[in-house]
Amino acid sequence: MFISSDFFMDLLYSISGFVVGMLVGITGVGGGSLMTPLLVFMFGFQPAVAVGTDLLYAAITKTGGVFVHHGTHNSVEWRIVALMALGSLPMAIATLLVIRYYMSIGTELTGIVTFSLGLALVLTSTAMLIRAILLRNSIPVIAGSQLNYHSTARFAPPWDIPATVLTGAVLGVLVTLTSVGAGALGTVALLFLYPRLSTLKIVGTDLAHAIPLTMVAGLGHWALGNVNMTLLGSLLVGSLPGIWIGSHLSAKIPERFLRPFLAAILMLIGLKFVLQ
């Protein structure tokens, strides 16, 4: 029986989505830091197309997670989400406008995107390694205590607000350029800014902020022609069951071994992007 090359490639994309989804489910590492380099190195996609496709992929896959965190766990601090979005969404749009301008005058952006992607991967790798340290040094929360927004923050009012907005702005630029950072870097930033916030709320809040950011950035890249819809569909077919299986395996696989291994891989890939 003859199998077309297009069907074979779609199958490979779905398998890749499954593997990445499973790793995300096990480790919690953002899909962008794994998927985008895979699309560039293994499948030869242009960095801009890999970034744009992965952003929409991330927005769709994260949406289910935020319903669980908000509806089941009530673990989303919406005030923090709003403050971060106040910085990230305008900067995402501004970054897209800059990209469109340089595309309109024929400037090649591959080098800029590649370097930014490498830098984001190096930062993500570092964030994965220091996350455990920040968790150990976080201030314990007394069971049953009700902490208001300001009492969880590292900076006293009114400095907590601009610090959160600025963090969102930095993430907005980085995520729009590279599709990397909404997960690992966002989590570490929140751990630093709000050390008394529980880990569950850190994860839920970061996830809730990542959805509008990746959606705005992804739709912007789609408007610029940087999204491969066939690739997107194939990745989703594989990744959604992969995330489900990985989430169930996470309790059985020692993360303390897998996370440093993934961090080392991301560091090497990031340095390759930066130095090439």
Model description:
With 276 residues, the chain is an all-alpha fold. It has one domain. Helix content is 76%, strand content 0%. The chain contains ten helices and no strands. The protein has helices at residues 5-27, 31-41, 47-72, 78-104, 110-137, 160-178, 184-193, 199-223, 229-249, 255-275. The longest helix is centred in the middle third of the chain and has 28 residues, at 110-137. It is globular, with a radius of gyration of 18 Å. The mean pLDDT is 81.
Features of the shown structure:
276 residues, 10 helices, mainly alpha
Topology overview:
Blueprint: H1 5-27, H2 31-41, H3 47-72, H4 78-104, H5 110-137, H6 160-178, H7 184-193, H8 199-223, H9 229-249, H10 255-275
Helix pairs in contact: 1-2, 1-9, 2-3, 3-6, 3-8, 3-9, 4-6, 4-8, 5-7, 5-10, 6-7, 7-8
Largest sheet: none
Structural class: mainly alpha
Q: State the helix count.
A: 10
Q: What is the 3D shape?
A: globular
Distance between the termini: 42 Å
Query: What is the percentage of strand-forming residues?
Result: under 5%
Mean pLDDT: 81
Q: How much helical structure, as a percent, in the residues? A: over 70%
Rounded to an integer in angstroms, the radius of gyration calculated over CA atoms is: 18 Å
Low-confidence stretches: none
| H-E string | HHHHHHHHHH
How many structural domains does the protein architecture include?
A: 1
Tell me the number of strands: 0
